[in-house]
Amino acid sequence: MMNNDLNLVLRRLALLRISIASVWLMFLGYLQYQGFDKLEPAWLLLALYMPLMLVSIWQGQQRKLKDWHLLLHLALETQLLAGLLFFTGGATNPFISYFLVLLVFAAYSLNNRMTLWITLLCIVDYSTLTQWYQPLLSADHQHGLHNRSLFDWHLAGMWLTFVISALIVITFIPMLLRARQQQQKEIQSLREQQLKNEQLIGIATLAAGTAHEMGTPLMTMHMILDDIAQQPDHPLTKQDLHLLREQVASCRQSLQHLANAGRHAHETGQQDAYHWLCTLLHRWRLSHPNALWVDNGINTSAQVAASPLLDQALLNLLDNAAEAGHQPIELNSSQQDGFWQLTIRQPDAHAATQIRQQALFSSAKEHGMGIGLYLSNASVEQFGGHIHLTAEENGASRCCIRLPLLSPGS
Questions:
Q1: Is 140 contained in some domain?
Q2: pLDDT interval class at 182 (50, 70, 90)
Q3: Are 60 and 18 a contacting pair, CB within 8 Å?
Q4: Strand 303-306 relative to strand 397-404: parallel, antiparallel, unpaired?
Q5: N or C: which end of the chain has fewer CB within 10 A?
């Protein structure tokens, strides 16, 4: 069992011990008031519940818990219960049914072997208490419960024990089950995140290999263009040759930038969101000279995380929005619920059709997501944000990127 689950069980067990100790306190007080004798050992054993509760509360806050810790707690409690029962009528005491509640805790929390040990211990204790115990006697040592309607007392005790056990089962067990279900959901989420990371590693490995393979052809093209430039009768015009050399140089610079960004991808800091957006828009304009946008209010004072991963994610979103239609994209930023939100809208009436044809994601789902959007969403999620892409009724597309706000200097 996971440590978090064991911590929860121990904390719930501590609350249960408080309840049971309170019931025993009232029960022993009633017996003392009715004049029953030889209850001093029972009072002493009841006092031991206090350190046992404190230990379980303290240990429930610790991280490094093992199954045998809970096994020891349950074993000690069964023996403490057996001692209390021994001095208060043994197996004739209806509270002996509380053994079943402890077995429920053991069956829920421990493996089969440890549960079997607790079960055997409870069976031995129960069997022993049927033969050896101290009967409840009045103060004159002459009259016991036979003169006080033993059968009626036993029925009343059995009813009270059933009520207590029922309340325990319907209160504590659902709480433990809900906690376990929540942990299972967290485990599933971690598994999905691990699978996503493995997919990203695979994509990154292929990208690195492709970038490495592109280096040699680009170098060859650069050398050939240099040779052509030295030939007086080459067929290319000066403008074409200059353009080709610029394009090759741009590809080489992009590969070098990719390599540098990869080495510093996980170096994070914080930055002003407006300044960051303006810088990326300028960089985007250099790579897309015909790209146009409309400022619908992007000057928002906010601090967000800084990382090359976020730079590339936002550039991918701008590319997708520009390619989805033939109209200038509309940009708007705001602060909502502790997040900085940038809305990228493509008003072209055919943008939504392209989204449906490409089966891009309209929520956090990843199935059918384009590779650029998939990588962008994965990068943004690493910083606690998310991307939401929707198709509007008039045919336009809307993409929202949300990043958590950071306090200055954090």
A1: yes
A2: confident
A3: no
A4: unpaired
A5: C
Tokens 């904390």: give the residue: 11
Q: Which of 208, 221, 210 lies closest to 248 in space, CA to CA?
A: 221
Please indicate, yes or no, whether residues 317 and 289 belong to a single structural domain of this protein.
Answer: yes
Cα separation, 278 vs 400, in Å, equals 17
Q: Find the helix packing angle between 49-60 and 40-47, rounded to 10°.
A: 10
Host domain of residue 95: 3-148
| Total count of domains within the chain | 3
Report phi then psi at 67, rounded to 5.
Answer: -60, -35
Number of Cβ within a 10 Å radius of residue 360: 22
Task: Please name the residue that has the structure tokens 């610029």.
Answer: 246
Distance CA(164)–CA(74), nearest Å, equals 19
Q: Which ranges of 34-132 would DSSP assign to H, the alpha helix?
A: 40-47, 49-60, 67-86, 98-109, 112-131
Listing DSSP states for 177-235 in one string gives HHHHHHHHHHHHHHHHHHHHHHHHHHHHHHHHHHHHHHHHHHHHHHHHHHHHHH-TT-S
How big is the CA angle at 208 (ends 321 and 263), to the nearest 5 degrees? Answer: 90
Distance CA 71, CA 77 (A): 10
Hey, which of 145-154, 357-366, 385-394 has the most confident mean pLDDT?
A: 385-394
Q: If residue 388 lies in a helix (H) or strand (E), which one and from where to where?
A: strand 386-391
Write the CATH number for 382: 3.30.565.10
Q: Can you tell me the distance from the alpha carbon of 31 to that of 84, in angstroms, rounded to the nearest whole number?
A: 13
The yes-or-no verdict on residue 406 having pLDDT over 80 is yes
8 Å CB contact between 270 and 303:
yes
Dihedrals phi, psi of 203, to nearest 5 degrees:
-65, -45
> Model pTM greater than 0.85?
no
305 Cβ contact partners less than 8 Å away, ≥ 6 residues apart: 268, 269, 270, 271, 383, 403, 404, 406
10 Å Cβ neighbour count for 101? 20
Residue 374 has pLDDT above 80, yes or no: no
CA dist., res. 67 & res. 345, Å (int): 55
Burial tier of 108 (Cβ tally within 10 Å: 0-12, 13-18, 19+): middle
